[in-house]
Amino acid sequence: MKSTAPRTKPSDERRTDLLDATEELVQKQGAERLTVEDVTTGAGVAKGTFYLHFTSKGDLLDALRDRYVRRFADAQLTAARAEGGVAGARAWVRAGVTEYLRDVRLHDVLFHPTARGERDTPNTVVDTFAEFLAALDSPPPDPEATALILYSAMHGVTDHIVHAPEMSDRLLAGLDRLVDSLIRN
């Protein structure tokens, strides 16, 4: 009996398979040791399939960074919109902490590489938060600066929670106070 199922996956599914395999591999071995062959083996595809989606290992890692940032920003924006107002800003910061803690190893491998400089691209997370703040009924005087300050505070607090989890409640309460002080006029 012949199968009517297609023999190959759609292109977007193959791309996702390659990104998923890369994500798993970089968390285990880091980005520097990653090879195209490791990725194609992990994704269960031929090497030629890789080059249909990415031009190089660097291009693949850029796509993985973009996917990470989009997932991170989407989680924050969803939390912020669910609450609205100042509570939404606090929810944005807390969702950022949660997302960062969920994938600390992946974040560090992708954004703190040892042999690769920082990318010169916009910070999507800060940009989406600035847009959220600007749309508040009573936005802060400078939504972009406020978003950057709160993002930096969120990032720093999260780093401290990783190394000193016993301070988590105090640090999160401090973030809430900072959000309140920067957003309430």
TrEMBL record:
Residues 35-54 bind DNA. InterPro entries: Homeodomain-like_sf (IPR009057), HTH-type_TetR-like_transc_reg (IPR050109), HTH_TetR (IPR001647). This is TetR family transcriptional regulator. Keywords: DNA-binding, Transcription, Transcription regulation. PROSITE patterns: HTH_TETR_2 (PS50977). Residues 12-72 form the HTH tetR-type domain. The lineage of its organism: Bacteria, Bacillati, Actinomycetota, Actinomycetes, Pseudonocardiales. Pfam families: TetR_N (PF00440). It comes from the Bacteria. SUPFAM superfamilies: Homeodomain-like (SSF46689). The keyword DNA-binding applies. The keyword Flavoprotein does not apply. It comes from Amycolatopsis oliviviridis.
